[in-house]
Write a structure and sequence with these properties.
This protein is α/β, with parallel strands linked by helices. It has one domain: NAD(P)-binding Rossmann-like Domain (Rossmann fold). Helix content is about 50%, strand content about 15%. Strands 3-2-1-4-5-6-7 form a 7-stranded parallel sheet, with helices on both faces. The longest helix has 21 residues. The termini are far apart. It binds acetoacetyl-coenzyme A. The site of acetoacetyl-coenzyme A (CAA) has 20 residues, from helix 6 and helix 8.
């Protein structure tokens, strides 16, 4: 039977490349989006990948979406927790809302989605969960106390969950991308971005497909011995 994957934030950036890589690996993919309806529609038309609209920060919406996807495509075998947002500013200027929005989406969303898919994976005795962390969760970043905290939390989340799920044939891993050429990175002020790129030994931003190929690798049938790991893909910017 065709395996089914959910990619949150799966219609843009790293998520888009991941949805395509998993489709190309032969899986049925459900890509989520929250706000950008036009981009999601265009993505669905271009790729033939099914798109579903919900907010990963909303616990009940995650439950409902997972049920709908399972009813439409079949039992869910893979979850890629990719959806994430930034609300950058120095902490002195950071509002309480900008703290909570990032925590609720970037790490709360992973919890919500795991709660929605894990019972099914356990029943079937197989699963792959890949969380998208960040170099900035490993090294910190000026202007990202909220984002760095949320992404850093994913390491503990991954290691604890991997211990709980190993007995059910479910692996849990985190990929920590560096600066990748996506809309999110394009929003960094030009002068700041130039300084960041100057610190990347490979000498350029990464490409979304360079992250997606690792997601597909971790999701593969014969990756069952890789669990609780963090894999850094950052052009040598931070060797962790
Ligand atoms: N180190 C030291 N000083 C820095 C700095 C840094 N990295 N970045 C900015 N500053 C300085 C500025 O030059 C400025 O100095 P002056 O006051 O002397 O002019 C001062 O800090 C600005 O301080 P503010 O309190 O005014 O900062 P701000 O609230 O306006 O925030 C900023 C500015 C949002 C941090 C902006 O500099 C920025 O966007 N930086 C990049 C943040 C970044 O890398 N985000 C990553 C987004 S991509 C992503 O997150 C994907 C991923 O996983 C990698």
């Amino acid at each position: 039977m065709t395996r089914v994957a959910i990619v949150t934030g799966g219609t843009r950036g790293i998520g888009e490349a991941t949805s395509i890589a998993l489709r190309d690996a032969g899986y049925a993919v459900a890509a989520s989006y929250v706000g950008n309806v036009d981009r999601a529609r265009a993505f669905a038309e271009r790729t033939g990948i099914a798109v579903f609209q919900w907010d990963v920060a909303d616990y009940d919406a995650c439950q409902a979406a997972a049920a709908e996807i399972a009813a439409t495509l079949g039992p869910i075998d893979m979850l890629v927790n990719n959806a994430g947002i930034t609300r950058d500013s120095s902490v002195l200027k950071m509002s309480r809302d900008h703290w909570s929005d990032v925590i609720d989406t970037n790490v709360g969303g992973c919890f919500n989605m795991v709660k929605a898919v894990l019972p099914g994976m356990r029943t079937h005795g197989w699963g792959r969960i890949v969380n998208i962390g960040s170099i900035n969760g490993q090294a910190g970043q000026f202007g990202q106390v909220n984002y760095s905290a949320a992404k850093s939390a994913l390491h503990g989340f991954t290691k604890a969950l991997a211990q709980e799920t190993a007995r059910y044939g479910i692996t849990v891993n985190t990929i920590a991308p560096g600066y990748i050429a996506t809309d999110m990175v394009a929003a960094v002020p030009e002068e700041q971005l130039a300084k960041i790129v100057a610190k990347i030994p490979v000498g350029r931003l990464g490409e979304a497909h360079e992250i997606a190929r690792m997601v597909a690798f971790l999701c593969a049938e014969d990756s069952g011995f890789i669990t609780g790991s963090t894999i850094s893909i950052n052009g040598g910017q931070h060797m962790y």
